[in-house]
Amino acid sequence: MATQLNFTEDETLKATLEGIKPFERNPDWLSGLTAFLEFVQSADLETRKTREFQQVLWEESRVSGVGMGTVDVSAALEAPEFCEWVAEQSVRPVPEDPEARLAFFQAFHDGLVSQMKTYCKRVAWVKIFRVLAAFYPRYFTTITYRRMALECHRAWFGKQKKPGGVKRQLDLMTRLHDLLGPPDDSPRLLAERMTLPWMVYQEYVQSVSTEAEAETTTDQGEITLKPLPALQRRKGFTSIRGGLASIISALSFVVDGVSREELMDYLRSELPDYRDSSLRTLITILKNEFYVIQEQDGIFTQTARGELFLETQDPQELIPLFITRTLGVDHVLCALKEKEQNQTELVQLLQKVNPGWTTTYAPAAMLKWLRDFELLEQQANGQYRLTDIGRDWVEQIHWEPEFLEVRSLGEEPELSKSSGEALSVATVDQTQLIQSVVEDTAFAERLVSQLHLGLWSRPRRHFAILAGLSGSGKTLLAQRYGAALVQQFKADPARHVFVQAVQPGWYDPSPLFGYINPLVPEKYERSGLLDFLLQASNHPEQPFVVILDEMNLSHPEHYFAPVLSSMESGDQLRLHDEADTFDGVPKVIPFPANVAFIGTVNMDETTHGLSDKVLDRAFTLEFWDIDLADYPRWEQFGLEPAQLAEVRQCLSGLLTALAPERLHFGWRSVEDVLSYLQLAREAPNFSMREALDDVVYARILPKLRGSESERLQAALTQALTVLDQHGLSRCKAKVQALKTDLSDTGMMRFWR
Question: Among 37, 89, 382, 440, which one is most buried in terms of CB atoms within 10 A?
Answer without folding.
Answer: 37
